[in-house]
Batch of 2 targets.
Target 1
Amino acid sequence: MRAARQSVGRSFVLFLRRLEYHVVMASARDFSPDFLFGASTSAHQVEGHNVASDWWLWERSRARRIELERRGLDPLDFISGEACDHSRRFEEDFAWAKHFGHNAHRFSVEWAKCEPEEGMFNQAAFDHYGAVLEALRRRGIVPIVTLWHWTLPAWLAERGGWEAPDAIRAFSRFVGRVVHDFAGQVRWWVTVNEPTVYAWKAYAKGEWPPQVRSSARTQTVLERLLEAHRKAYEVIKFVDPVSAVGIAHHISAIEPARPHSFFDALAARAARAVAVSRPIAATLVTSDFIGVNYYSRRRVRFSLARPADWFIKTEPSVLATSDLGCEIYPEGLLRALRELARHLKPLLVTENGIADATDTYRARFIVGHLRCVKQALGEAIDVRGYLHWSLLDNFEWAQGFGPRFGLLAVNYLNQQRTPRPSAEIYAEICRTGRLPAP
Ligand code: FCB
């Protein structure tokens, strides 16, 4: 009886959503005026001077310098330093966002700046984020705040980072303090950014600090991040029950390289389960929305030569690619949205972007992905917004300052911002809620 009532309820909600969509369409818009359009950033990548973080120390470590020199690279290009100086230039950057018609902006609060020593909260950092929120509020831009985007306070990293026994307790305390200060000003909270990518890069591949290569520890850290999310959810909801809390999941389209190969299909299925389905299932009850960071497609093949990678090998791209070799594959976003719709949670595209220094593909990339979002909305899938990665060029982790993801190009010699042509095309969509004619 209850199940039948639920199913009638669901059909009714779907009916209303379709109706709403068609009303919006009739008004000659593709996206309703309350659809969130904007861009995403993260603290370490844009702010600068993240001196009390593990990444800051790692970027300057002797081992890192030697590794980069061995690869013939200039270590200075791989030190975040003042990054985009966004800490001081956020007003200017948000003025651009406003000019581009953005009505939402995702950024992260930096734990290492807020708590540079264990248990000692730095009021100046909280004042800074207060000013950031105020600058967005003044411009009518909705903040979407990430609580952990990959960098740790150095004191916690020294004690073992997410493997330290009290890491989750420490994170909850930090979250409690942030939410206590900013509840009421923030409705959308992202607890953790891409837990699977962090665990993989830092604990399986050994490419990011603390450069571990262990599948057992990768698993432990992933579990801990999911637990950190669950605890953070409780903390946030206790302080602000009406807020919306979720994770920004990294979701690529994972497809078998040889469509008719049974083993490749198995490899793709296994990769999807580990990288996407399980982490989402494990946090569904404590998620008010599902954040989707979608960039590209991975074509995978079963390979006996890859036991350390669960016998999965990623094949080279076959479509046009970004400067980082990622395939441009908008259909994958539509597939992801359809697949996630079965969880009956609102979806938010928390990241989607392309490294494209010459701005050759970015406009087509944005329009292509937004067509897929529009298609999903037309299928009554509850997508609440689209946040492009990124507002401005920034420090791309272990790849340094090379990759250019920004709607705004940044000249790192003088921190000058210049809008790329694609930024204006996206701006037109944000302002009008309409996609350009095909
Ligand atoms: C995502 C990260 C983000 C940025 C983009 C390019 O996986 O969340 O910080 O590095 O990739």
Note: DSSP finds 15 helices and 13 strands in the chain.
Target 2
Amino acid sequence: MSIVHLENVFKDYTLGEQQVQALRDVTLNIEDGAFLAIAGPSGSGKSTLLNLIGCIDTPSSGKIFINGQDIGGKKPDELSDLRARTLGFIFQTFNLLPVLSAEENVEYPLLQFKELNATERRGRVAKYLAIVGLSSFTRHRPSQLSGGQRQRVAIARALATQPKIVLADEPTANLDHKTGEGILQLMKNINVEFKTTFIFSTHDRRVMELADRLVHIEDGRIVTQEVRAGGPAVVIERSPATNHPLVQGANQSEADGTHI
Ligand code: ADP
Ligand code: MG
């Protein structure tokens, strides 16, 4: 089943006198459960494409379907409901609220779900912080966490609403290579375990290697689409002390300060 479908999508920006064609005639079908990378150089239209899929922005022309719904005719409150319940977001700069602890950051998007009471919210928060391997860091503020740990809080926050699709705009761009690879592997493990669709952008060749679908974009156009084998085999080790089965060696390498 297709979870995201774009049909002849164009996006133009006007900047002063200048017209920028950020996306040109993009037609793309993303299957439910995909682990898909959008690859391309800086300025090629990756963020624009993710913002359209994330209903953060609207196309100049063309149609977009998210989870079977045509988002064209939707009212702003319907779109924000779709964003809140169907989509999760992970950003390059983590975008955590600095005054809130890890658990408060993860709880934050759940506060708008009136059907969840405080106990249920806390249960969700604990569950997803455990999945990203941060059960021992729930009270830490972002400034007390390494970059990789911050991004794992952001992953827990994106997952806590149990979205069908997680969008990640260059999620590893601010991390060193080893930490970035750990983050991608964690996303991949979650994709395999929970069947959550992941759509992420990158210009890092090593990050692309982990994708099972690769869409190359240049100058606002899709130039190639590859279906890949699904990256390296996933080895899951169980270590009950700090690690959830989906995280491998998550805290060992970072807690000692080797990865900032
Ligand atoms: P990428 O994420 O691949 O670096 P973007 O989607 O951010 O690329 O940008 C694609 C093109 O659209 C670039 O030429 C960029 O300058 C332009 N662009 C992006 N956002 C805006 C905006 N808000 N206003 C004007 N031009 C923009
Ligand atoms: Mg970008």
Note: The beta strands are 2-15, 18-31, 35-39, 61-66, 69-70, 87-90, 165-169, 197-202, 213-218, 221-227.
